Request: fold
Amino acid sequence: MWTGAYALTQWPHREELYSRPVLREGWFDAWLGGWVPPPALVTGLLVVLLAAAATVAAGRGGRAGRVTTAALFGLLVGLEASTPRAYAELAALQWLFVALAPSGPSGPRWAARLLMLQLSAVYVFAGLSKLFEGTAWWSGRRWCWCSARRTRASTCCRRGCR
Reply:
């Protein structure tokens, strides 16, 4: 569902995001040698991605639907003019895992559990960061541990952490 929402947010801006020949730093730009995808191609890819993501969300299509969605999502993320943001990179990696994971009762249980662990790791470590860093994640203040007491990073780093 999030992939569909992501594609829908790209829809009104598809010309700026994919078809402008300036300031291109995307994943595939070095390989494409300055080629810029036409807006009609991007529109078609977005439509097919939305259909494939809807098929996977509805539980139809099996592995072919997952592989198609993963490939289209990865292609669109790679064709963007800017470098991918955190969501796009994480979602591309997750779609790769989902596409390659065994499915149905014939698939091993450990593979599904490993996939669940991988997909939840980002949330676990974000929570741990918020717990152990205190308010630094919100306020931007950095803390370091010096001489077994907690001090501000500016004070600590001036003295040097040892």
Remarks:
- Residues 26 and 83 are 5 Å apart (CA to CA).
- Strands lie at 143-146, 149-152.
- DSSP finds nine helices and two strands in the chain.
- The mean pLDDT is 76.
